[in-house]
């Protein structure tokens, strides 16, 4: 049995990972329990974590994040993205990989449901909150930066995909800080919107691909010879 060579595998594997990540995020996001901002953050988290859909929804979100991180590293390894995106691609791969840790704590917050409800110590749940304060802005900004570099590097139909990536990354980065600044405001739509926009970017980028389309400037010598 023959296997495809390493370059062919890395060239196409990142695209498969991106598409699978987006699909998993859409599926997980659709099942995420709702919040209404009428109670404290502790009680809101207790209510959502007690929902029967919590584990499956967040398992899919963890899977989505792992797949996106893997896709970013595979894309970085493939070296077939525009040269101007390489730095942003590496930064996004690092940031999303670290963000995986937050999604795992987010999922595991289920174990603290009773403690949250009773006002007891909830180390896993509050570790998730502490991590989210740092890692949401970090990962969101990295995705927005990468999508923006794609937008500037490939001026073609790919802008249709890159724009949701920029918007989704910015919204993801701001979602947790907004919750902390406006605790009485219903911001579920911000989290859901960020997830959908990033999923659209991930699926679209995987399907369309990213290739250099900018024409390189011709050298003076070669112009003179024409």
Strand content: under 5%
Overall pLDDT confidence? 84
Identify low-pLDDT runs: 213-226
The N- to C-terminal Cα distance equals: 51 Å
Number of strands: 0
| Main sheet properties | none
User: Total helix count?
Assistant: 9
Shape: elongated
Query: How do the helices and strands follow one another from N- to C-terminus?
Result: HHHHHHHHH
Cα radius of gyration in angstroms: 20 Å
Give the % helix.
over 70%
Structural class, by secondary structure, is mainly alpha
Total individual domains = 1
Oligomeric state: single chain
Secondary structure blueprint with pairings:
Elements: H1 6-31, H2 41-49, H3 54-78, H4 86-108, H5 113-118, H6 123-153, H7 159-181, H8 188-208, H9 220-224
Question: How does this model look, in words?
Answer:
The protein is mainly alpha-helical. It has one domain. Helices cover 75% and strands 0% of the residues. It has 9 helices and no strands. The protein has helices at residues 6-31, 41-49, 54-78, 86-108, 113-118, 123-153, 159-181, 188-208, 220-224. Helix 1 (6-31) runs antiparallel to helix 8, helix 6 runs antiparallel to helix 7 (159-181) and helix 7 (159-181) runs antiparallel to helix 8 (188-208). The longest helix has 31 residues, at 123-153. The radius of gyration is 20 Å and the shape is elongated. The termini are far apart. Residues 213-226 have low confidence and may be disordered.
